[in-house]
Structures are given as C-alpha cells and as structure tokens.
Amino acid sequence: MSESIRYDGDTWDLASSVGATATSVAASRALASQGPDALIHDPYADALVKAVGVDYLIRMANGEASIEDDPMLNRRRMTEQIAVRTRFFDDVFTNAARDGINQAVILASGLDTRAYRMSWPAGAVVFELDQPQVIEFKSRVMADQGVSPTAERRAIGVDLRDDWPAALRENGFDANQPTVWIAEGLLIYLPPEAQDRLLDSVTALSAPDSRFATEYMAAGMTLPDSWRERFKNYSARIGSDIDLPALFYDGERNAVGDYLGERGWRINVQTTRESYAANGFELPDDEMAVEFSDSAGYLTATRARAQ
Ligand SMILES: C[S@@+](CC[C@H](N)C(=O)[O-])C[C@H]1O[C@@H](n2cnc3c(N)ncnc32)[C@H](O)[C@@H]1O
Questions:
Q1: CA distance 299 to 238
Q2: What are 201-248's pLDDT values in tens digits?
Q3: 271 backbone dihedrals φ, ψ, rounded to 5°
Q4: pTM
Q5: Quick count: other Cβ atoms within 10 Å of Cβ 298?
Q6: Is 281 part of any domain?
Q7: What is the whole-number distance in angstroms between the Cα of residue 238 and the centre of ligand 1?
Q8: Is residue 264 part of a domain?
Q9: Which of 56, 94, 270, 302 is the most exposed place for a label (fewest CB within 10 A)?
Q10: Domain range for 249
Q11: Closest C-alpha to ligand 1, atom 14
Q12: Is residue 102 exposed (0-12), middle (13-18) or buried (19+ Cβ within 10 Å)?
C-alpha cells in the first residue's frame, strides 16, 4: 500500500500533487469531447490541459495513453466513465436551475468549465473554490482564450481544509437562499475530519431545498490494494510520476450519505450500475468494476424544510 505523501497545508499547481489529478480529469473530458462520437461537450478542456503543459497529460487528452487491452483503461471505457460522471453533475445543475435555484457552488472546481459552458438562468451566481494557484490558472487561461463565463462567476482561491465558509461569505454568498453544491472528485483528498467539517459547513450554509452532490461509497468500503497496484502500473506505463493512491487520505471516514442523513438531508443514491444503465452503457467486464457497481456511484442530498 502507498504511504500518503500529504501533510497539513500542502499546496499545488495543476502540474503537481493533487492539482495534476484535476488536469487528468480534464484530459479525460477532452478525450470524451472529441470526434463525431463525442460523449460529452467540454469545448475548453483540451486547451486547458495543453496550457498546463505536462506531456503525459497531453497524451491522455489525445487518446495516446489509453491501454486498449485493459478492460477499464481502454479508450471507450475511459470516455464512458468520464461521460457518466460529467453528465451526472451537469444534470444536478440543470435540474436545480429548472427548480429555481440560482446560487451554485463548485467545491474543488479544478479545470471544471461548467461556469463557462453551461446555459445558466439569468441572475445565476456560480462560486468556484479551489487552491489559489488552480483558480488563478484557469481564470487566466480562459480569459486569454477570450472565453467569458455564462453566469456570474466568483472564483475563490482557498484551501478547503481551512475556513472557506468565511471566504465564501466575503464574496457575497447568501445563506438564506437555496444553493446547489457539488464536490466532484474531492472528498478522498481531504483528511476524514476535514471531510466532516466540510459537510458541517455545507449543512450550516444550506437553506431549505438546497442540494449537495458528490460521489457515493457505501459505508466501510475502501479501495482494494489491487486497485492501488493497478494504478501504479498504469502510471509507470504512461510515464506519469503521479502516485494517485499516495495523494489520498487513508483511514476510516464517515460515509457521506449516513453523515448528511443524520443532519437533516434526504439522500438519493445512484449506483454505478444504475448510472451506466441510465446512459445506455455496459459495465466494464472487469472484476473491480463489478465489485464497485453496487457499492459506489453518485449521491444527491436535499436539505429538508424545517418542520
Ligand atoms: C480530482 S480533481 C477534481 C477537479 C474537478 N472537480 C473535476 O472533477 O474536474 C481534485 C480537485 O480537488 C482540489 N482540492 C483537493 N483538496 C483541496 C483542498 N484542500 N483545498 C482546495 N482544493 C482542493 C484540487 O485542487 C483539485 O482541483
């Protein structure tokens, strides 16, 4: 098992440490956005990955780092996996906008371009929170490309282990109106107690009818060592120096659904199996994918009205 290389107050840009994971996800989005059979439409991912400038991540975006004889790492499976994920979180925002929620928060926004590519209702405000260097980079590259946000975008460089609610309020967040929050690909990079603190803060800042969406992992579920080993081999094969499992915070953590459920949220889970079926994709024919098909997926929480 990899030893974690994380420590309190560590920082990064988009080429290093946890920042490179954001660029890697954007590379998958760039790949899935290509060609006549594109599964998603993220028109900015490719330019962002190229601007970061890390060779193996550019090769990922170009489809040159897929492994065709691997049931999960071949191009088709990789693009389907990111399509399921991207469409899920896109739908969270689209449905919230349809239901009149005008305040959105993207926690750990990385190279997420939803504030630039989605069609937001008039008056919508989208807050983005991530490490300062990550926020500055994306804002600069998008401006250099001449791309403007399609909502009022308020980008905040802050560490999500720190007092980010204060920074959010200072930037005009209104805790009296319902909010739609997403934390896509974030929680495993937070220490377990910082995850709890983050969920407490989201709860405290969420007016009735607010929504919060993130990945789902069943209580007690952990990543098997075989997965860690597999990822290491993949990294070595594509020439990446990122040891992904070493960026995670290990140790027991509360299951998000249980934690929020006990704090007045109504929980809805879409398992990986259900998510794939909803998109018309087959689950990869792979032992690990099968193992995770019912115990992992996506979660939406809705803040109940006060009784
Ligand atoms: C896997 S990436 C996901 C990015 C984006 N949500 C997406 O799905 O494309 C993880 C993101 O979490 C951010 N992150 C992790 N821990 C953080 C922390 N303590 N403070 C601020 N951002 C953090 C990283 O900077 C990175 O952008």
A1: 32
A2: 999 999 999 999 999 998 888 778 888 888 888 888 888 888 888 899
A3: -70, 165
A4: 0.97
A5: 22
A6: yes
A7: 22
A8: yes
A9: 94
A10: 99-303
A11: 108
A12: buried
Token reading at 154: 């308020």
In a domain, 13, yes or no: no
Q: Show the ligand 1 pocket: residues with CB < 6 angstroms.
A: 18-19, 21-22, 25, 108-112, 130-131, 134, 159-161, 184-186, 189-190
For residue 290, what pLDDT is reported? Answer: 82
Give buried/exposed letters for 118-154 (b at 16+ CB in 10 A, else e). bebeeebbbbbbbbebbbebbeebbeeeeeebbbebb
What's the distance, CA 282 to chain centroid?
22
Q: What is the identity of the amino acid at 262? A: E
Please name the residue whose Cα sits nearest to atom 17 of ligand 1.
160
| Per-residue confidence (pLDDT) for residue 243, from 0 to 100 | 84
Amino acid at 237: R
CATH number, domain containing residue 126:
3.40.50.150
Does 253 reside within a domain?
Answer: yes
CA of 247 to the centre of ligand 1 (A): 11
For ligand 1, the distance from its centroid to the CA atom of residue 10, given in whole angstroms, is 13
Answer yes or no: is pLDDT of 307 > 80: no
Share of the chain above pLDDT 70, in %: 99
Please choose, from the candidates 243, 219, 246, the residue with its C-alpha nearest in 3D space to the C-alpha of residue 233.
Answer: 243
